[in-house]
Amino acid sequence: MCESDAGAPPFSIHCAPPFLTARFAAPQRTLGWSLLHPGFATIRDVVWLEVRDRDLPPDVDPAALLRAKLGEIGLPDALAFMTARDIRRHHLGRHRVEEVAAACLTTVGLTNGERIDSRRPLRAAAGTINTLVQVSRPLTGGALVEAIALVAEARTAAILDARAGFPGPAITGTGTDCIVVACPAAGAPDSCAGMHTAVGEALGAAAYAATREGVALWNREFPAPYGR
């Protein structure tokens, strides 16, 4: 865990493989891409599901599988990610700037790692980077778009910095990454979340710290250029 005087995280974390759950005390407005609740949504729970290739044969719909698994644990309305990464290897980064606190919970796998100007074959159950970042200030739709761009930039910066010196083409992400940014659903929203703002600095620092910690662990476990 990486933190910088950010106080308690805004969500509780429960890890019971194959599920990792972040639960908010109050509804959150979100923007992101995932199998369930892509785009703008309002949620209370975010779930990571760990899967293997055997869970996803060609005749299985991943979204249907995810819905069924969420139903089994009583969270049918949760926003959800799917990954082959061992979800016990999750990472929390927190950072506070002025009156703004941000927290990032992520799982980092680079089995499906690639760079932005190329494309590799997709594995059925790929190691991927699934990132949730929450910022303590409500945000407008435009500010959420700006925030998600900064999280993607922070993720890529963390990968490049943590894998400096590795042989082969640099990885800038994976072909199956998912990012979700969350903020309080209630309250007057901020209209900007760029690098020049406290919101942007806080969420970028939290995402960078958690992702870099995750990549460093992956490097130790799988030292080959593209992971295992």
Question: In brief, what are we looking at here?
Answer:
The chain is of the alpha+beta class and 228 residues long.
Instruction: Characterize the main sheet.
Output: 8 strands, mixed
Gap from first CA to last CA: 24 Å
Compressed to H and E, one letter per element, the order equals: EEEHEEEEEHEEH
Going by helix content, strand content and strand pairing, the class is: alpha+beta
Radius of gyration: 17 Å
Tell me the number of helical segments per DSSP (H or I, 4 or more residues long).
3
Give the beta-strand count. Answer: 10
Q: What CATH architecture would you give?
A: 4-Layer Sandwich
Strand content: 25-35%
Principal-axes geometry comes out as: globular
User: What is the residue-averaged pLDDT?
Assistant: 91
Give the tally of structural domains: 1
CATH domain topology = L-amino peptidase D-ALA esterase/amidase
Point out poorly predicted stretches: none
- Helical coverage, percent range: 25-40%
Task: List the topology elements.
Layout: E1 11-16, E2 19-32, E3 39-50, H1 62-72, E4 79-83, E5 90-97, E6 100-108, E7 113-114, E8 129-135, H2 141-162, E9 173-174, E10 178-184, H3 198-221
Parallel strand pairs: 3-4, 8-10
Antiparallel strand pairs: 1-2, 2-3, 2-10, 5-6, 6-8, 7-9
Helix pairs in contact: 2-3
